[in-house]
Amino acid sequence: MKIEKKLSLLVASLILVLFLLNVTSAIVPVSGVNGSPTTSRNTDFFLSATTAPPVTTMDLAGTPGLSNWYTSDVTVTFSVSGTEPEFTTAYSYDNKNWISYGGPFVESTEGDTTIYYNSTDSVGSIEETKVTTIQ
User: Fold this and answer.
1) Residues 114-130 pLDDT 10s
2) Tens digits of per-residue pLDDT, 44-72?
3) β-bridge partners, 126
4) Rounded alpha-carbon distances, angstroms, from residue 128 to 3, 56, 101, 115
5) 70 by DSSP, 3-state: which?
6) In the chain, where are the structural domains located?
7) Could you tell me the fold of the domain covering 55-134?
8) Contact present, 50 and 125 (Cβ < 8 Å)
């Protein structure tokens, strides 16, 4: 087997290991460039793992009234699905000041309450912000 093929296999294996370890950049010493086993140089490369962003669903629990209004306090619960195992979810009442979601919460404000929300997965894929108005 030629040295170039061995080097290609080694680099491919290294890239796979770095990807599995979630390393996004590294400097790799390379020997045997241009057919010369004595040539050595450092090569910068960047790995980027792109996944589909997570999908967050808002579930509302309360006593429904007429015209989609609630006649009681409303419990808000977010659930997330996606390709990555870890997520963070945040919500906001003004789309500026965000609150980290830690579990279901009760919304008891009278009238219209607008809630913005989204999730980010462990590789940084961010879901487009969604908005729901509770009445």
Assistant:
1) 999 999 999 899 999 99
2) 555 555 578 999 999 999 999 999 999 99
3) 120
4) 47, 10, 16, 14
5) strand
6) 3-46, 55-134
7) Immunoglobulin-like (2.60.40)
8) yes
Phi and psi at 133, nearest 5°, equal -110, 125
Token output for 113: 């309450």
**For position 83, what pLDDT does the model report?**
85
Where do the H-state alpha helices sit in 1-135?
3-20
Which residues have a Cβ under 8 Å from the Cβ of 81 and sit 6 or more positions away? 54, 55, 57
Beta strands in 1-129 (DSSP E): 25-31, 40-46, 55-61, 74-81, 87-92, 98-100, 105-107, 113-121
Terminal alpha carbon distance of the chain: 71
Q: Which of 61, 70, 54 is nearest to 105 (CA)?
A: 61
| Global confidence as pTM | 0.64
Yes or no: say if 84 and 51 are a contact pair by the CB < 8 Å rule. yes
CA gyration radius, the chain: 25
